[in-house]
């Protein structure tokens, strides 16, 4: 996920060399040059063999055998996270799922590549013309919480995707993409990670119904919605939890979906207030 011109959740071949990386699928090919890469991270998790097919297979085992099978029907999957800037300066995070031990090997290939330092660019649009219906999604702040790069990156990519589906939204600006000449964002979404607990899909599956409460994966966010006029300033606390046999990384889309719903509600309330009075404002309680 996170590569321009490439669909999410597709299989392909990842090639890494001093010039950057290329991900090739049956229908597309995306490349990221080394001078655009700002960070590379490796991690791993244990997931069920054969995904949903494996889960259905376990469900078909009688007399509680499916729960016992969950203890062995799993394998390690590596996650390689590559953060980079696109041609317009917009932040992206691509997460690749690799066979066990492959992420560390790929990480070594990036070791000699130069890194680009990201700079704050919000001031670029001070006083610029506002592009109606547009929203800027700032990169998540995680300084106070230890959270794997894959999780915060997936949250960001899912949030960009979810906000793009909100009714009335025009362009969704990525962090770093602002260009005063082409228009400034009307709204801004800032998010910071307030808490993270990485559970275990295997533990949840092995423990059956108890897995709804044990081994859960949890994320807590502070989300702030503002607009260029200063009339919108809403602060929300957002929580998401993965229970049962779902993969732990699914928590990212759950967080993004909730934030997008809160944003849509805040935007609608501001528009309603503006329709009832020119000075209508919406502030957090």
Task: Give a quick account of the main beta sheet: strands, pairing sense, barrel closure.
Answer: 6 strands, mixed
Proportion of helical residues:
10-25%
Give the low-confidence spans: 63-74
Describe the strand arrangement of the main beta sheet, using strand numbers.
Answer: 8-7-9-10-11-12
N-to-C series of helices and strands: EEEEHHEEHEHEEHEEHE
From the alpha carbons, calculate the radius of gyration and give it in angstroms: 21 Å
> What structural class do the secondary elements suggest?
alpha/beta
Strand elements, count: 12
Report the mean per-residue pLDDT as an integer.
79
Overall morphology: globular
Distance between the termini: 36 Å
Instruction: Tell me the fraction of residues in β-strands, as a range.
Output: 25-35%
Q: Enumerate how many helices there are, as a single number.
A: 6
What does this structure look like?
The protein has 285 residues and is of the alpha/beta class. It has helices at residues 51-59, 65-70, 102-110, 149-163, 201-206, 251-276, and strands at 13-17, 20-24, 29-33, 37-48, 74-85, 91-99, 130-137, 172-174, 184-197, 217-227, 232-242, 282-283. The strands form three sheets. A six-stranded mixed sheet has the order 8-7-9-10-11-12. A hairpin with a 5-residue loop joins strand 5 and strand 6 (91-99). Helix 4 (149-163) runs parallel beside helix 6. It is globular, with a radius of gyration of 21 Å.
